[in-house]
Design a protein that fits this description.
Distance between the termini: 65 Å
Structural class: alpha/beta
Low-confidence stretches: none
Number of helices: 15
Mean pLDDT: 96
Shape: globular
Strand content: 5-15%
Order of helices and strands: EHEHHEHEEEHEHEHEHEHHHHHEHEHEEE
Largest sheet: 8 strands, mixed
Amino acid sequence: MKIAVIALGKIGLPLAVQFADKGHEVVGVDVNQHTVDQVNAGTEPFPGEAHLQEKLSALVPAGRLRATTDYADAIPGADAVVLVVPLFVDQEAQPDFGWMDAATRSLAEHLTADTLVAYETTLPVGTTRTRWKPLIEEVSGLAEGKDFHLVFSPERVLTGRVFEDLRKYPKLVGGLSEAGAARAVEFYNAVLDFDDRPDLARGNGVWDLGSAEASELAKLAETTYRDVNIGLANQFARYAASAGIDIYQVIEASNSQPYSHIHQPGIAVGGHCIPVYPRLYLWNDPAATVVRAAREANAGMPDYTVGLLEGAHGTLDGQRVVVLGAAYRGGVKETAFSGVFQAVTALESRGAIVSVHDPLYSDDELGRLGFTPYHLGEPVDAAVVQADHVEYRRLTSADLPGIRTLVDGRRVTDPAAWPGVTHRVIGRSYS
């Protein structure tokens, strides 16, 4: 097949590589010329994605994969077009379709008959049918269900392990017609491999959910569940600490029963998915009080964590405090909705002199994010662990000379490595 993938970001490029690795001819489209040039040179544009560089090094020279900024080069004659353009959501839960609208118009201008168009970007329920179908039909002059087929098939992967996750989880599809859904099932079976999953009654593979709306809701439901679960864990943690209870023993005990699956509390919920998709769900269902309450609970955790530091350390006015971790998640160079921003704001509002450390970011990169870079070995008064980088598991008090108080927002540090330092973890009581 000839396949076009629109947007070569941290999901789109691995998808394009996966399709090419299965023997298909793939053209990636991206608005960033630098990204296009790097892909065509066989160089990964971003670090940290397992196996991406080795696959690029093989596929690009073999002519299986190339990139362009020109839709007219990629779309005409394609058997399938897969779109993974970002959708942004503001703090009031309003989605900004600007980039997706522009990409959809551009693909529609060059769309030819008998093409499967699949959206993988997470969307509010109903968007595929009520926004993309009429827009593509208007611009292309083609009729959906007759001249082309349109489906929604959400990505369900985590950056850093995309190829592993593509094999591990069922690929969900939902069409606007039975014929479109059948085309999508055939397509994804031809570009993906699946691990054996005896735990799934339906078996691993491509699952047709019966409609685009069901597929849209499935992605929102699975991610919103995680946000609600973490919000509940954070509520439990705050109460347990006030009541003199270790929440981690409680969670371990509760989860020993198969119907309980309480997640871990922590300083922040970050990334493109978990803090964002509940807002997309709320856009459809503003009366969802459980979802809204969980989002508010999680959004308040950075300030709560800084409050723990203040309670243990004393006044933070004039104190040198380092936030350990700019990334939203350990091992991933990404700051989308990272707790670092609210943590720094909360510290500065209390008069602290704040710096930020992250092993994945250079001083210049931290500076461009608006932070003062910190280097291990420089004197500090206190620290907050914001990201669960593996490097932070090995830290000791010798790495932060002069430190008196450490609040570990991710429960990754060993208290024994911090003699003489007041060590605090979310969800534990200290009398």
